[in-house]
Design goal:
Helix content is 37%, strand content 37%. It is built from 2 helices and 6 strands; from the N terminus they run ααββββββ.
Length: 119
């Protein structure tokens, strides 16, 4: 009977250690994972599609470190193009590679006289 109790205790200890290890590993993974550039672009496109159709989009798969004062983060760059008031308008953005949050966005319009006008 004593051998059975030792086996049960060992089995219970192994299960507890396994569950705790899995939980810690999952928390570590969630804290350090980055969104894929495709997921970030999908998120941005969903926001733009609420206002109208999109002509084109792009995103860089290369992350770039950015520091603003004491804040450091990895970023990706991307862009959206669409027709607004009969003119082609382009938006270029910088997004946090981990969360997908837009950190900066610029709008450019295109016309025959001045192809790239910053607004």
């Amino acid at each position: 009977m004593e051998e059975r109790e030792e086996f049960a205790q060992g089995l219970l200890l192994g299960a507890v250690v396994g569950i705790l290890g899995g939980a810690v590993g999952s928390l570590f993974y969630q804290a350090h994972r980055q969104l894929s550039p495709d997921d970030i672009l999908k998120k941005v496109k969903r926001s733009f599609l609420k206002e109208g159709p999109i002509e084109g989009s792009w995103i860089s798969f290369e992350t770039k470190p950015v520091q603003k004062f004491a804040i450091k983060t990895d970023t990706v760059e991307g862009g959206i193009t669409r027709i607004e008031d009969g003119q082609l308008a382009s938006y270029e953005f910088i997004a946090d590679a981990k969360t997908g949050a837009i950190l900066a966005i610029e709008r450019y319009t295109h016309d025959a006289n001045n192809p790239y006008t910053f607004e």
